[in-house]
Amino acid sequence: MDDSSVPPAVERSQAVLDSMPVFVSVHAADGSNTCTDVYYHDDLSVALADADLTGTTLDTVVGADAAARIRRSVEETVETATVQYTEFRAQTGGESTWYGAYLAPLDEGSEAGADEAVLVAFDVTRLKEAASILHDAIDAIVRQTPQHDLERAFCGRLVDQWPYEMAWIGELDPDGGVSVRGEQHATRYLSDLNGVFESLRSAPDPGVRALKAGEPIRVDAADGTGDGGDWPTIARQYDVEAAVALPLSHAGTNYGVLAAYTSDASTLVPWRRALLEEYADVVSYAIAAETWREALTTDATARVDLEVRGGSPLVELCADAGTTSLSIAGVTPRKAETVYHLGAVDGDRRALREAVVDHPSMQPLTGEETDVEGVVLETPAPENDLARRGLRFETYDVLPDGMQVGISVPTSDLVGYATSRMRAGYDGVCVSIEWDTDPPSSVSSNSSLAGILTSTQHETLETAYQLGYFKRDPDVNLTDIADALDKSRWTVSEHLRLAHQALIEHHR
Fold first, then answer.
1. Looking at residue 470, what DSSP letter applies?
2. Domain housing 221
3. Distance in angstroms (rounded) separating the CA atoms of residues 249 and 256
4. pLDDT of 335-358, one tens digit each?
């Protein structure tokens, strides 16, 4: 037919169909699975672009399993004269793709009603993978999976369900090396790297580089993009074309890095890279949740005593103020600051306040004109990460030439973390560890509160107490507590109310 005879409205309708990333077909409810009409977008049917699909069966187009599912939906659509929804998996362009499909009865005005259904299918792979992320995270947290099992499970999910050949999660250890906490199919690769180079930390691996840089790293071995150095040559020995490494962090606390490797760089399309970032966020949250659970429920603690000789602004402050010693009663982590609440001060508090004011990275916390109740360090200190993980500072004494810090650590896994974070932030750190399997049953201990308060309620109550909210004439309000926790005022109010209620009911 001459193109000039095609009505403009028909041309426009066809143009609309051609521009949409959907597969549209018409099917008779006779059980034959025959496509009576087909309108499809080439992007969704790469493997079938040269075929005339009209008159073929769905088995040819999407495979037998998907065809059977669609056939049942067609029959139900026609029988009930209602719109139905189904999902199916099909091979397109050599890759398995999930499709969502709506089916609607096609009624052309005959008295017999509809005997055909219109199918509109669209790619829902991203939605399926995103739902899988949420399901895995919830399942792991609900099951209270131990951290090492949790990390191994997340790596396994990447390899088993996503287009990655291997994955690992690790962190920098206190001795300057790289500690691998969980992996899937990466044992030989990491072992070989450790054997070829002086240590794993010196290897040009993207995951190691992300650990040291603290930022995401993506390298394509196929085309050399991403400044991979010598890594592409090594990667090809393991049939790896590309790698993505993402730092793991939650609420300002670093939990290491997640590294994933694929043999097909083309699978790392923008949406899948974005989804991997979401996955890393979920992993970080799950690790943080498990850390808090362990901190609140464990029956065994360790006392870690540290002697710090340098690198602390508090030591500088003590020396500048001419203060013999000062004690820290508590530490409150903020988003980009650290609040040290002062206890006893052996010296002139007026001079101490002046020294705080003069210090380039400090400011005083509340107090009268001649007094100071705390010190706000305008950068996040190592203590921030420890406090967020449920570790408690039992003693904290600052002298003009160093600090003596005693930390209550709930699990053996966190002992190494506590020492490594303090060593990374300060100079000349000496450590001694003493295990206690029968910790004191004080109401202030995390283990005693585990069955009374949630971790969020405990954190809110502790922060409010340290800031002085419960004093007779408090200098802080709910807004100050909300700012310290990076939460809304209403949320803080609700957590405090629930915490008060729980403690009163427990006492009664």
1. T
2. 128-297
3. 7
4. 788 888 888 888 888 888 888 888
Percent helix, strand and coil across the chain, each rounded to 5?
Answer: 45, 30, 30
Closest CA to 99 of 25, 157, 34: 25
Can you tell me the distance from the alpha carbon of 22 to that of 39, in angstroms, rounded to the nearest whole number?
9
- pTM over 0.70, yes/no: no
Q: Where are the alpha helices (DSSP H) in 92-124?
A: none
CB atoms within 10 A of CB 264: 16
pLDDT digits (tens, 9 = 90+) for 383-424: 888 887 778 888 899 999 899 999 888 766 677 778 888 888
Tell me: do 210 and 304 sit in the same domain. Answer: no
Written as six digits, the tokens of 17 are 């169909």
Task: Indicate the DSSP class of residue 427.
Answer: B
49 with 85, same domain: the answer is yes
Instruction: Let me know whether 348 and 452 are in one domain.
Output: no
Q: In the listed set 278, 297, 316, which residue is the last one of a domain according to the structure?
A: 297
Q: Which residues contact 155 (CB under 8 A, 6 or more apart)?
A: 167, 168, 169, 182, 183, 184, 186, 258
Which amino acid is present at 192? D
Q: Which of 123, 138, 168 is the last residue of a domain?
A: 123
CATH for 172: 3.30.450.40
Claim to verify: residue 289 and residue 367 sit in the same structural domain: no
What is the Cα–Cα distance from 343 to 166, expressed in whole angstroms?
51
In a shared domain, residues 232 and 284: yes
65 and 177 belong to one structural domain? no
Q: Which residues, in sequence order, are bridge partners of residue 245?
A: 217, 259
* 8 Å CB contact between 168 and 184: yes
E strand segments, 358-420: 362-365, 374-377, 392-399, 402-409
Between CA 483 and CA 491, with CA 486 as vertex, the angle to 5 degrees is: 90
* Number of domains observed in the structure of the chain: 4
* Distance, CA of 416 to CA of 362 (rounded, Å): 29
Q: If pLDDT is split at 50, 70 and 90, which confidence band does 285 have?
A: confident
Region of residue 216 (phi > 0: left; psi between -120 and 50: alpha; otherwise: beta): beta
First and final C-alpha spacing in the chain: 88
Region label for 214, one of left (φ > 0), alpha (ψ between -120 and 50) or beta (otherwise):
left
Q: Count CB atoms within 10 A of the CB of residue 355.
A: 23
Find tokens 């206690």 and name the residue. 436
Measured CA angle at 241 (ends 238, 243), to 5 deg: 95
